[in-house]
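Quick one: structure for this chain?
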Amino acid sequence: MKIEHYQQFTEFEARGLKKQATAAIRAFIDSFDDSEEIEAWVWKYLPGLKRNRNSRIRHEIFHELVYPVLKAGYERDDFDCTLWLGKLSQNLYQSRRLHEESGWISAQELYEKCHEIDPENSEVRLLLLGSIISWLEYTEHEWPAGILYDNNGATLEQCDEISAEVEKVLRLDQEQKYTAFISQYTPKLKQYRTKLVNR
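Got it. Here's what it folds into:
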């Protein structure tokens, strides 16, 4: 592995020299000898990799270096690999091939798995909590027209799933940061459920 190519890449990228940056990152990726060398680099550099405004790292780095390491670890229930796959889920969503290969897994599902592996980890608890809240916010964004599930109005069974997620928020939210949100959300869900029952 020739780290100088990576250093050139970061310099070119900082100066906005896209063509040179692409050539440097390609040379860097091609300079690795084996998967062990890739894995060592990934764990050394992963926390400091630059992310764009969409929370994604450079796609060549993700596709060819980071993702293979994280996917292999995720498949053997490795906590750190699963957590990082969740943190880099925007990269995963951006690639239909990789997202399909990983079973269309979501960040929330990855954080759920991490929480099962280490329920005492507060970073994971907060990431999972934030992910559930984002989803609940999505489900109510067309209120008062209704409560959404995917792109459609929630069914009664899906309302049960949503209720379970609300209960999960109450368990996870030790700081009570989302008490006000849940207090205004719960009556909407109840009202929507009643409307479905009375149809």
